[in-house]
Amino acid sequence: MHQPVNRNAMLYIDRPPERHRLVQKLQSITELTAEERQALLDLPMTVRSYTRGEDIVRGGGIPSECCLILDGFACRYKLLPDGRRQIMAFHTPGDLPDLQSLHIQTLDHSVGAMMPTLAAFIPHASMRTLTARFPGLMHAFWRDTLIDAAVFREWLIGIGRRDAHERIAHLICEMLLRFRGVELAPDNTFRMPATQGDIADALGLSNVHVNRVLQDLRRDKLITWGNYTVSVLKWDELQKRALFDATYLHQVSRAAA
Amino acid sequence: MHQPVNRNAMLYIDRPPERHRLVQKLQSITELTAEERQALLDLPMTVRSYTRGEDIVRGGGIPSECCLILDGFACRYKLLPDGRRQIMAFHTPGDLPDLQSLHIQTLDHSVGAMMPTLAAFIPHASMRTLTARFPGLMHAFWRDTLIDAAVFREWLIGIGRRDAHERIAHLICEMLLRFRGVELAPDNTFRMPATQGDIADALGLSNVHVNRVLQDLRRDKLITWGNYTVSVLKWDELQKRALFDATYLHQVSRAAA
DNA sequence: CGCACTTTTGATCGATGTCAAGTATGGTGG
DNA sequence: CCACCATACTTGACATCGATCAAAAGTGCG
């Protein structure tokens, strides 16, 4: 996350197959017409690949493109001057982590890859043309940024008023539902390519404490967590322990447990 | 904050004088044309007044109006089942705390008054007409929600990775700049109608600890805090202690200290 | 004047951080 | 295919920030 922004490894694919994830993601939070779906698939994009620790977008800059996660796993984070790191969001395929750059000049945080990740870049101009032509998509994007904010608020509650066990359980609940939204959580199992240190930086804890809490959750057979793969074994009890209420995700359809 | 939503005390004013605060607020984050300013002033709104502790908007509902703070002071908060409260934002005159309800059905948190507060309600339909007619205003509103999200992220960092002294100093820095944006902080002094318990719920601390930290800041002559009025005496040093960087507020013009 | 709320103070406790060492684990090059 | 290295995970001992509890002292308001 502290190395120079990706240099080589740049390949130009006009229509990467993972592109449909954007459609899928938007459909998980709103309704789309066939034309809108097609317009999304037709967006011009430049694709680059990143490895763990690389910055996909560097904070402080003035971006001229929006970034779309096609495959892999990314996070938004910010560093304090003395190196403390706060991860503010995890991003799964289909997410547009810096959509805000369309309307806010300087990016106030960075986006980093947490595993080998494929990211597409869409020129702001194309986004503006698209939203001008399809008001439905403009609303979809606006809605997406609003849900983004809702997730931040929920994290705020978590870090501010939940204890370590509740926080970690809550994060697992959230990730499970979000992965389900893009059909990446068959069998209540999903890839969670974050180290315990990453989780700690996301939840305002120390890596050591994250480790201990995870051991508790595993001992109680609520989850499995290993090899960057999480399985939720007892969804109801996990939700209860997390004080989890999915309203804030504002998903239009949510597969039942 | 736990009493029934305001019942009586409802007065219908077509053009309350405080209405210009909305223009002022939007101008602090974007440029407006004369027509856009006029259109904002012409918005139909119903005005109600609230006292400390009353809910202006109740979470869980499906609002059909947007709420605008005309005068006073409000906060957005959410309660955990066991009564723990997290305040997620403070709102000053000119703010639209539930603008998101335009695009997200159910409101996932509440808005409460922290002092006698005047709030105006603008029907969603009017907002939609307005934004359809003035794309510039649509962008202004979108931008506002994005800045909202940026502030949440900054709070996230604060609660997650700053210690109590940094958090409190940071909050004071933020409030000062935001009040300046609507010209409510002459002489680096502003009204902060929050009890120490409120501050604690906003920053993820206990009221006792907030008290002790405030005493430190006063002892060091960085601020004055009393009678719900805050004066910043040593802006530079306060910023330093808070590790404060105003970028995230995305204000277009920021009066110098 | 009294009540409700807030601020302040002191004493104690506990969740979580820090430090340090040891143990997997996976990738790389020889 | 193995040895090695870097990274991540695990464990234990100990430190500390901030929570909790309780009570006193202000403050404002009817």
Automatic annotation (TrEMBL), chains A, B:
Keyword Nucleotidyltransferase: no
Record flagged with keyword Transmembrane: no
Keywords attached to this entry: DNA-binding, Transcription, Transcription regulation
Residue ranges constituting the HTH crp-type domain according to the UniProt record: 162-236
Species the sequence originates in: Muricoccus vinaceus
InterPro entries: cNMP-bd_dom, cNMP-bd_dom_sf, HTH_CRP, RmlC-like_jellyroll, WH-like_DNA-bd_sf, WH_DNA-bd_sf
SUPFAM superfamilies: cAMP-binding domain-like, Winged helix' DNA-binding domain
Top-level taxon of origin: Bacteria
Protein's UniProt name: Crp/Fnr family transcriptional regulator
